[in-house]
Amino acid sequence: MALARSEVAAATIVDDADIGSWSKDADTTIRLIRALVAGCRAEPSLNAWFEGQTMARRVLGKIDLGVAVDLPEGLFVPVLRDVGNRDAADLRAGLDRMRADMAARRMLPEELRGATITLSNFGMIAGKYAAPVVLPPTVAILGAGRIRMDVVAFEGAPAIRRILPLSLTFDHRVVSGGEAGRFLAAALEELAKPE
């Protein structure tokens, strides 16, 4: 965290995803992962590592997702590998295995290293928006706030819809506001889909 504070030029953009078209049994975490993958495909520059000392950026093809997990012992960020090439059932099984391994304290150190981008679903606890911390060498983290019911314009009329707030923090030394905006727009578009 000290390295993140001293090195990263953090900037955050926020927006709301209308998820009113989701089925009642939709898996929010899987939908967030799919949205993050859509964002990385639209703007690969956010799935990258940056070495501050040498000013070298490495855009990565494979998306190895750090998933922030809050446990009584503290915050851990295990890595779910190659999320762009896994289906929903495989991702859910991987997430369940990670949580079980962490609860049983059998998570291997290498499973906590090598993330290329991070997801924080802090809204499971509380909060709409945040400025999540970007941990070097990654350059971006997508945060999801608490889902709420809100009155919004829908098909030209006011409607009560389910809204998912998103916060995207990025290292402005490496990622431009335009790149971050296009990433977030692609994630919002993916989240708006019924399935």
What report would you give on this structure?
The protein is of the alpha+beta class. Helices cover 27% and strands 30% of the residues. The protein has helices at residues 2-7, 28-42, 88-103, 177-192; strands at 10-18, 48-51, 56-59, 65-67, 69-71, 74-76, 79-80, 117-120, 140-144, 148-154, 157-171. The strands form 3 sheets. Strands 1, 4, 7, 8, 9, 10 and 11 form a 7-stranded mixed beta sheet that branches. β10 and β11 form a beta hairpin. α2 packs across α4. The termini are far apart.
CATH topology: Chloramphenicol Acetyltransferase
Shape: globular
Beta fraction of the residues?
Answer: 25-35%
CA-based gyration radius: 16 Å
Question: H/E series, N to C?
Answer: HEHEEEEEEHEEEEH
Uncertain ranges: none
Average pLDDT metric: 94
Distance between the termini: 36 Å
Q: Please identify the structural class as seen in this structure.
A: alpha+beta
Short overview:
This protein is α+β, with helices and mostly antiparallel strands and 195 residues long. The chain is built from four helices and eleven strands, in the order H-E-H-E-E-E-E-E-E-H-E-E-E-E-H.
